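Ticket #4471: complex job returned nothing on first submit. Input attached below:
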Amino acid sequence: MNEEYLWNKTGNDPRIEGMENALKAFRYAPTAPPELPAKTFVLEQKPRRRFLSFGLAFASIAAVIAVGVWFLIPHKNAVISNDLVKTVGPQPTVGHQVDTPPAPKVELPIRESSPSPIKIRHLARPWAKSMNTLAFKPKDKDHPVTFTNEEKYAYGQLMLALSITESKLKIVRDTIAGNEEMKPLIEKQKNLYQK
Amino acid sequence: MPDHEMTGDLFLFAGTESETAGPVRVEAGLVERIAAGDEEAFGELYRKYAPMVHGITLARVPRNEVDDIVQDVFISAYKNLHTLRDKNAVGGWLVMIARNRATEYFRRAKPTDELSENLSEHNSLLAEANEILTAIRALPDTFRETLVLRLVEGMTGQEIADQTGLTPESVRVNLHRGMKLLREKLGIEVKR
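Support reply: We reran it on our side without changes. The output follows.
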């Protein structure tokens, strides 16, 4: 094998030349360069897209937080769980009739004074119950539902989160629609994000 | 070159320019012109590197697919030109794109037989060419690419080094070892 011919085609090597001649049929045949694709991105649209994606991301996060807060709140009055209450009163006895009317049952919530959110969440598990039990319907009209301070606070937080989410979604909608009135607010939000 | 001089590993792309890598590269200017939207510059790049990309592709995919993939490689290069860090290493970059495209081809499409080869067996020269090409394709990547560039595209060792970014030493080693393996392979096939 002639190394110099293999390297720079000087001298001769019949074997390699034979291969070259045979393989010449597969050699590249010059063609015109491909047509270049048009550039599809426009630089001016970049900030708007970024702002839009920020808005959508923020709205999504706010919605997730709102749902999370909702499920973490102990809904003492909405969910009546056997784990949470105990019944106090005389138990029925078999084979023994008593004429006196039974004493009214009193339902006492356990640890009403200082509920532990983690334990209550574990015991209550509102998502494990039927959705009907989650509604804010008082079981008894004579005993209207009253919220504890913690529940009121959680409710307020939930409403706040929902209102933030709604306002962000409105901004996103206006951004998409190009609402002129919202432009100052959008600019303000944009500056906040940039900071 | 004797075998004992052929020492060292089989080099893929070294990543750095060898001191004997040849003339000073002028690709940077070409790349900048293309980035600025100069279509003429893109044409120059295409004319210069198309044979090399063709060879790299031919070493991997069926012949009837090669031309499309070559065009695809250059379009892809144009679209992703901003990702090229070293503007003087455009050749090695094109090699990488060509390899990736060839891999994608096999991932997407079901490999098919090259029908034209079977139909043309009466043509002894073409049949011989097919036999050699098949043997080359059976070699390891490094050898087959270098051999296709040398034997099919007719490039010299130095041209291969200049265009692919390999060092001339690597190309020399690859040519020598590749040719040795190819001869063995063809010899075995002839005996059958």
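Chain B has a mean pLDDT of 80. Closing as resolved unless it happens again.
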